[in-house]
Amino acid sequence: VIPMIDDLHEWLEKAVATSPHRSIVHAAQCGLAGLNKYYSLTDETHMYRFSLLLHPNYKTDYMKDQEWKQVWINESLRLLREVWKEDYAPKLTADQPATAAAATPDVETVEFGQWKRKKRAARPAETLDQLESYLAQEAFDCNDPLAYWC
């Protein structure tokens, strides 16, 4: 949504600046007013920023290319991490090890069934940093971001 709004905004500003017809200039100015109204509403929900950050084509690259203030980018990342940790990151229970390495027992001294159960229990811990791993990667072409995340 944000890149589309930016494109529309640029197009309407160009129409205001270059059109010789007053009616077109007026219509474009009304369009800009409406667009700005709805663009300002994107600050009321984190989902617009999150969808930009979580889209593999954009991440923070779009924000930087559009010369967002670094403090805005940092705040978007902070909010994303906060929501991720609170609502989406796998939660460890007291009986789950903190890392997969800690969960790997000496196979010679433990029955295979126990080893397998402990290995499975470690998987949520391995995915705990899935968001950080994703954010550390460079942006990449992705035609279907929803399929990527599913």
Automatic annotation (TrEMBL):
Name of the protein described by the UniProt record: HAT C-terminal dimerisation domain-containing protein
